[in-house]
Prior knowledge:
The chain is mainly β.
Amino acid sequence: MTTFKEIRGTAIQVVSSDPSNPEEGQIWYNSSSGTLKGYQLAAVNSFSSGGNLNNARQATAGFGTQTAAVAAGTQASPFVLTELYNGTSWTASGALTGQQSYAAGTGTQTAGLVFGGGYPTNVTTTQSFNGSTWTNVPATLNTVRRVLGSAGTQTTALAFGGYRDSPGVTSGATESYNGTSWTTVNSMNTARHNIGSFGTQTAAVAAGGETPSFTGATELWNGTSWTNNPTGLNTPRAYIGGAGTQTAGLAFGGYNPTYTGATELWNGTSWTSNPTGLATARQIYNGNAGTQTAALAFGGEIPGSPSVTAATEEWTGQALQTKTITVS
């Protein structure tokens, strides 16, 4: 009979605690717990309930990670509310310096950025966040707009698409931020707003949106220009939440022409519909944070009255995990 050592080239180690950096396929015996364990790819790919926002809202700018997220701004007075998520619950934080509902956000919980937005008067304002307070920075967007896409960090950000009120104009404008100023670069191939967006300043993804018709079109940014991807979202829609990188992303929620919890995974080339989606179907409006394996959806617009929600949902994706091995 073939042994584990013959297959892997090493014997099963006996350790008193689980390895801190195991490799895929590694197996060990934990003598402290008396269990046989392994490190394997575990497919979860589903949302579960998280702690509700203190204030139900839509039109919030979200960014950060699943365990350290920021929700900045809201559609109703007081428009400047900011809340921080710690993986369990939301806590009130320093307010925005001025109204920036329907804005875009990017960065981390201790180094974030919010730009654009405003309703009914759109703004080009940019604000930076240090984990507790907001500060207006001198740089302003060159194209005024709200419900725009975003990617990157506090000092290397990307703004794209959006909608300008009075007169109503859908934009494909793209701007790059270097921590000091915004520079207009090549526009999107398809002007749109309420996009599912994620990635970095040099490798971003724009999925879906409203043109004004609902679309599933996906474009990829390489730091210089946008390229149309051959395939788009399986469910064309706008008001989408997004998370991840250009090679491993996630799109969830939205509207077309009904509220949806549809969730799709992106592998850098194509989208795959997940069997289960958000428990609360909603328009996300940038209320999102995280990665393809650990994302967060919060707030948004829902059908009925009240028309906004405080619901927070945590996504657990396919990832390598330590699992106890049993005879079953």
